[in-house]
Amino acid sequence: MTADRPPLAEGVPDRLYGRQRGHKLRPRQQLLLDATLPRLRLLPEQAADPLAAFGMPGAKLWLEVGFGGGEHALEQHRAHPEVAYIASEVFENGLCSLLTRLVPDGGEATAPLPPGLKLWPQDARHLLGLLPEGALDRLMLMFPDPWPKSRHSKRRFVHPEMLPLVARVLRPGGEWRIASDDPTYQAWVTEVFADQALFALAERHTTRPEGTPGTRYEAKAVRAGRQPIWWVFVRR
User: What EC number(s) would the UniProt record show (predicted)?
Assistant: First the structure.
């Protein structure tokens, strides 16, 4: 075990599944990872006092797990500049997609960066193990990989063994927001949250709630005729 890899809950595989890189990175993308990402990165040793890393004492702290192309994360951050926002993603092409929206070509090492945004380019489950108890006001999981085969259910972020880990870092009354267009994952979310005492269902929507930015995954689902569902679960 290293300082940035605390043990996960029993039954949660300590292995990151899915791609970390897609097509070969272009020179601009590699420069963003080399010069811009370190300027925005939340370091493991900063996770014990995350608001100090932001320089935003007393602010609300939100975490988005698996931000994909970054559309949702950036719109949420820009709509809530008073919030300290951690956006987590391991897929390098997704990280580059977000970073390219933040700095102009040629400004990778020098352009000003938003003070209320930090990136966690590692497994978000380990960040949950490093954050203090009750640190988060909101956790967002927007259209995660559904891992539709039943034998892969342990790879899903929503999992019975994950609930205590999330509950530890969400303050009482804090929100866990989830969205999915996959029928298997939708049924799984309903099943997992039906038999537990840590979270209460506060909202369930079949149209995107007001104040929730759209994503490319939602648009793709709608074009394919799939019905997304949005949930808000509140920490008891």
Answer: 2.1.1.33
